[in-house]
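Each record in this resource describes a single protein on a pair of labelled lines. An example record follows, reproduced without changes.
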Amino acid sequence: MEVGEKRKQRQLQKEKPYRGIRMRSVGKWVAEIREPNKRSRIWLGSYSSPVAAARAYDTAVFYLRGPSARLNFPEYIVEEDEVRDMSAAAIRKRATEVGARVDALENALRRASSAPAPDSKRVSVKPDLNEFPDPEDSDRD
C-alpha cells in the first residue's frame, strides 16, 4: 500500500462518514452498537464498504431504539418492520444479513464498473481459416 493511500484511509477514519462505524487499520469497516443500559456491545460485523457497515448499524439501532432512532439512511428502513423486543443475537443476525447483502451489491457494482468496456469501434470477428473465401465478399472493382 502506498503512503498516499494510507494517508487517505487515516483521513477517512478520522472523518467517520456515518454513525456507528469505524475503519480498521487493514481497510475494513466495522460496525458495533452498545446495548441500552448495559456496558456490553453488539458486534455487527466487518465490511468492505462504509455504506454496508452503516446499513448494518441502522438496522440494529432501529430494532434497539425504535422509529425515533437517529439513522444514517432513514429512507431504507421499511415501515412494515415491527419493532418488538428482540434479543441481542436476533438483532446481530438481522443487522449482519442487511450489511452482507449491501456489501455484496456494492462489490458487484464495483466489479462491474471496473470491468473494461467493450470497444465499439473494433469488431473482433475471427475468420474460419479452413473456409474458402466467398467471391461476393471480395472487393473487386
Q: What stands out?
A: The first helix runs from residue 3 to 15. The mean pLDDT is 82. The first strand starts at residue 21 and ends at 23. Strands lie at 21-23, 29-34, 41-47.
